[in-house]
Amino acid sequence: MSEIRRLERRPARLDNIVRDRLKAWPQRPPGAAPLGDGGAWLRGRPCDGEPVAQPYLKIPGSDRMRTIPDGLWLHFAGSAEDPYADILCIEACSTFQNLLDKRSRFAPSTIALLAHCPLPWLLAPLQANDATLRWHIIPFLSGPPAAALTVPVRDLRVLYGLQRTHYDGFARHQMPHPHEYFCPMEALTAHEGHENPAMRSLLARASAASAFMDPP
Known about the structure:
Helices cover 27% and strands 28% of the residues. By secondary structure, the protein is an alpha+beta fold. The protein is built from eight helices and ten strands. A hairpin with a 4-residue loop joins β4 (71-78) and β5 (83-93).
């Protein structure tokens, strides 16, 4: 019996499987085109060996209402005076109700979304085989930070992974919002899923650069 078939009987475990697979994805989303702004990509979630100190999303003034995606990539850019992040989120939705709940968290709003990066995450190495500290990659940081970093989100894209029956039904009867993208769950649970040409093509379209005829 296939792994995805067995996990359909225990949907709560799908999130864990997806997060485990996403740990193998690179620091830059596969297929993402450069934006020409001198920024840099970092994988915020999931991270090896860091179950607590990982970036999350919040609204200004809130310390409790946090959005914690299964996968989170941040493209840091701007200056020390005006920093920002473009983000790509990946969410595994094991039920249709789960999809509705997660879509509501990323619905368009007039309130600015903030990306909060804990200090231990900033001071930690990129990954087990790369000792480069994360803060070195962020272009507007000129020295080691002394506190957590919170930056406004300029652009948001979300990729939802759906069970095959939900995916087929959604594709037939629903219309995604401009910031939303969808794939079957098995594309996220697959080994080396980031090497899949179809996934790379999808994530290339889920980039702000895809909106320009001639990106800078």
